Amino acid sequence: WLKPFWLKFLLASRRPLLAPIALETSELGCAAMTSDTLHISDGTTMEIARLPDIDDATWAEVKQYVESNPDTAKSMQKFAKNPDAMRGWLQTQAIAEHYNTKLANGDAPVQERIKSLENDPELAPILEDVKKNGLEAAMKHLQDE
User: Fold this and answer.
1) CA-to-CA distance for 7 and 142, rounded, in angstroms?
2) What predicted TM-score, i.e. pTM, was given to this entire model?
3) Mean pLDDT along residues 72-85
């Protein structure tokens, strides 16, 4: 579960969830992405971009979560309009890609460090919650920085 789940949510892996939630198509100006209009439960709508490498199941889960959580939708729209936050996210993406490459190539020291996070007294309960409760738990913990 560690690589596909933990990295997807907390290390912003090659299939990041923040990007499709946060980035509005109009902000991107990128023709390679498709977009969907979400109907948020508070009656508003929001157009979000789907990154090309997001699989259908993850995309459906993201859309369902955002549509049922208006506060998250508003937070992600605000994020998309904040250049400092966007720059930080892009830097995180670059770092995540670096470590994803190391993990994919079987870099033992990096794999050991990632596994040791399960024993960290502060992270262990968070990881267990995310493992057990999925996207909703991950989003909750992302907001509880």
Assistant:
1) 13
2) 0.52
3) 86
